[in-house]
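Bumping my old thread because nobody answered last time. Still need a sequence for this structure:
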């Protein structure tokens, strides 16, 4: 039965209205780290199939409607980008950065059941949920003003808890400030405290910056050749896509410890979900193969240059904007409510930010418009402050 044929006119109208609203907002989401410059129309025809990647892509499956061969190529691409290879590491296409982070925390906990997970207060909110779900002993560490973890406090906390193996949850680009924890410094701290390489676990949460750092001239240390044990990246953020997704990659020997043989799916189960999305591996595969590495680099550089330009422009207009090294997130003091509402800006305590993603390179007008509005806003704020002072006396 063709189920769409049964929709009423009213319901068709509802969908049409929603479609128009999506078109309107697609390119206006400047506060969120999602690129909108993608075109996967070649893949639309696969939406008529119930694709399912249940199990491990490396195995034969008894379900022919899987995209394992594409998932394998996606993982080959990322393992190469992140300084490892598929004989030493294993990973899969996830539902997003959070699933990847959870997967790696599970690997770490299995390796060190009595270990303690250290993460900074600027880490993604899902880490609180993950340590609860997995019941991992943990310690939240204060951040430096730019969003990096406070290394002195980290060292102190590891020192007073030396009996427990450290599990480091490092941010490779925090959500709000785009700050990257210095994993070289963290490794030095661990070695100063006499922890050997096999006595701690180092995870990289590279949700956004995982697809930036491979394309810059001077990346901060973040990958397997820099000593990490695992990495999680979101697919719908920097790359962009219609369905949330991501990839996770971890050292193969740590994955073996959690693998279950499942008789009736005829594939070893190493993943968190049972049924897995078979469409998103096609999306990532398409994104990887439809542009050259030089084009990917140019796109990342375009975002970074535009972020730099916006920061300079805001500073010129009297707004103390800033950004972290190799980050596409421009941070500034939270403007008036009318502005953050108009532009849908996410704001925290004191700061709001704009994330400069791929689709803005060709059409940065919204960013310039925001800068104009913020310049007027700061003048008004100053006037109001002056008025308030006047009424005080
Ligand atoms: C977005 C984000 C996540 C979560 O990723 P999802 O794909 O939304 O699950 C984790 N960590 C950081 C730093 C993020 O920015």
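Sorry it took so long. Here it is:
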């Amino acid at each position: 039965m063709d189920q769409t044929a049964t929709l009423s006119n009213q319901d068709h109208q509802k969908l049409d209205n929603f479609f128009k609203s999506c078109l309107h907002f697609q390119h206006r989401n400047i506060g969120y780290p999602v690129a909108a410059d993608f075109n996967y129309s070649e893949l639309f025809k696969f939406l008529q199939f119930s694709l399912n990647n249940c199990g491990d892509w490396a195995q034969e499956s008894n379900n022919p409607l899987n995209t394992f061969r594409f998932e394998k190529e996606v993982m080959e691409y990322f393992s190469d980008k992140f300084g490892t290879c598929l004989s030493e590491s294993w990973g899969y296409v996830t539902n997003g950065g959070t699933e990847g982070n959870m997967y790696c925390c599970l690997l770490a906990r299995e390796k060190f059941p009595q270990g303690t997970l250290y993460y900074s207060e600027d880490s993604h909110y899902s880490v609180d949920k993950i340590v609860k779900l997995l019941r991992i002993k943990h310690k939240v560490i204060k951040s430096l003003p730019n969003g990096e973890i406070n290394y002195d406090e980290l060292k102190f906390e590891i020192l007073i808890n030396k009996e427990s193996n450290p599990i480091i949850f490092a941010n490779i680009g925090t959500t709000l400030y785009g700050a990257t924890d210095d994993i070289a410094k963290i490794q030095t701290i661990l070695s100063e405290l006499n922890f050997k390489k096999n006595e701690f676990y180092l995870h990289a949460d590279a949700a956004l910056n995982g697809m930036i750092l491979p394309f810059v001239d001077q990346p901060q240390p973040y990958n397997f050749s820099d000593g990490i044990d695992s990495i999680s990246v979101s697919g719908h953020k920097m790359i962009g896509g219609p369905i949330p997704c991501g990839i996770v990659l971890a050292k193969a020997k740590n994955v073996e410890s959690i693998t279950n043989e499942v008789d009736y799916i005829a594939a070893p189960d190493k993943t968190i979900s049972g049924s897995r999305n078979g469409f998103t591996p096609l999306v990532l595969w398409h994104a990887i193969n439809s542009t050259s590495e030089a084009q990917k680099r140019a796109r990342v550089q375009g975002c970074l240059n535009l972020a730099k330009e916006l920061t300079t422009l805001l500073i010129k207009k009297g707004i103390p904007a800033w950004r972290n090294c190799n980050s596409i997130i421009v941070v500034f003091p939270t403007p008036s409510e009318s502005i953050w509402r108009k532009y849908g800006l996410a704001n925290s305590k004191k700061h709001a930010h704009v994330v400069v993603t791929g689709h803005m390179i060709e059409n940065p007008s919204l960013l310039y418009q925001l800068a104009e509005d913020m310049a007027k806003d700061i003048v008004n704020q100053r006037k109001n402050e002056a008025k308030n002072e006047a009424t005080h006396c």
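The chain has a mean pLDDT of 93. Let me know if any region looks off to you.
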